Amino acid sequence: MATFTAAPVSDEMRDQAAALSSTLAPIAKIVEGYMELATGTWTADQTSFIFAVLGGFGVGGDPDVEHLKALVVQHIGDPATNPGLRELTPRRAHAIRSLTRQYAAYDADFAPRGLLAEAAGAADIDCPHPSDDR
């Protein structure tokens, strides 16, 4: 098997990562994971899996990042599970809870899962792809 070296990341990606890393520690960890993905060297099969998981297209019914993100947003947006929201007016807390519940409910319908699902299929060496005929 050939050995590959990842290309350097763009200035835009590096700047975005730096800006986000200087915020909350858990966000910095998420950024660190994304940057590790961006700078890693991956086989075609690993790339397919990465696209599938990041795109919200669970592999074989496996969980996916988009669904987890929606559940986390819903959890953080509920005053019952995030005491910090209790210092807001009840009307604001209710609005946040409602919006984050909507986000979680709509995640499956509106997340652009199809694009990365198609990219995952194209990266899967064992899977026929329409571009093979070109």
Strand and helix map with partners:
Layout: H1 11-21, H2 25-39, H3 44-54, H4 65-76, H5 90-110, H6 113-123
Helix pairs in contact: 1-2, 3-6, 4-5
Key traits:
134 residues, mainly alpha
Structure description:
The protein is mainly α and 134 residues long. The protein is built from six helices and no strands. Helix 3 (44-54) packs antiparallel against helix 6 (113-123). The mean pLDDT is 81.
Brief digest:
This protein is mostly helical and 134 residues long. 60% of the residues lie in helices and 0% in strands.
Q: Report the count of strand segments.
A: 0
Largest sheet: none
Shape designation: flat
**Chain-averaged pLDDT:** 81
- How far do the termini sit from each other? 25 Å
Low-confidence parts, pLDDT < 50 over ≥5 residues? none
What is the succession of H and E elements? HHHHHH
Which percent bin holds the helix content?
55-70%
H/I helix tally: 6
List the quaternary state of the chains: single chain
